[in-house]
Amino acid sequence: MPAPESRPPDNEARFTALFESTHRALLSYAVRRVAEPADAADVVAESFLVAWRRIDDVPAGTDARPWMFGVARRVMANARRSDRRRMALADRLRNHLTDVVPPPADPVSDVERALARLSDDDQELLRLVAWEELARDEIALVLGISRTAVRVRLHRARKRLTDQLAALAAAEDDDVATPAALLAADRTGREPLKRSAPGGQVMSRWAQARPGIEEA
């Protein structure tokens, strides 16, 4: 990597202050979004190289941190595009392999499982809120959109996350109910039998209640 071109002393001081105030947060931002910690270090290094070259564009005060998040986001996007181009041939070759690579383990919590079902944009938006604890103005700076757009997209992303959580809960309820129904079936393979609450009579699944049983 070539050495950065020289800058006036005041710019060097600005860059040093920027690094000291943001590098930990930037590393946390990157390490949560890449597969290997070494990749996160590369993202941070590249992001600060961009910041050095564009030191005059770095906002002052608290806006510097979300600005750096935006730089890191673009660095990772560029890296992913490069990786996709590099891996195109490998992907074609993998189609001919007979060994199947095991899929990654399921997320450990329902929230993570639901989050994984959302689009990349929804995931990033919700992570900026939950992980980086950014305000809407800061998120707008990271994503390069208006504060109003952040508000609308965040509302929709939270709604979609809630829907996915509900879908997971319903699926788990079905998984629990199915074994219970099988255990209730008799050994002849007929439909499960059940007892009516008022008199304890055994009724089939389709048996009609006696007249007046519900009014009693």
Q: Please tally the β strands and state the result.
A: 2
Q: Assign an overall shape.
A: globular
Q: What's the domain count? A: 2
Broad CATH class of the largest domain: Mainly Alpha
**Helix content range:** 55-70%
User: What radius of gyration results from the CA coordinates?
Assistant: 28 Å
The percent range for strand residues is under 5%
Overall SS class? mainly alpha
Total DSSP helices = 8
Mind explaining what this structure looks like?
With 216 residues, the protein is mainly alpha-helical. It has two domains: 87 residues, RNA polymerase sigma factor, region 2, helix turn helix motif (Rna Polymerase Sigma Factor, Chain: A, Orthogonal Bundle), CATH 1.10.1740; 71 residues, Winged helix-like DNA-binding domain superfamily/Winged helix DNA-binding domain (Arc Repressor Mutant, subunit A), CATH 1.10.10.10. The protein is globular and about 70 Å long. The N and C termini lie far apart (86 Å). 15% of the residues are buried. The C terminus is likely disordered. This is RNA polymerase sigma factor. InterPro entries: RNA_pol_sigma-70-like, RNA_pol_sigma-70_dom, RNA_pol_sigma70_r2, RNA_pol_sigma70_r4_t2, RNA_pol_sigma_r2, RNA_pol_sigma_r3/r4-like, WH-like_DNA-bd_sf. Pfam families: Sigma70_r2, Sigma70_r4_2.
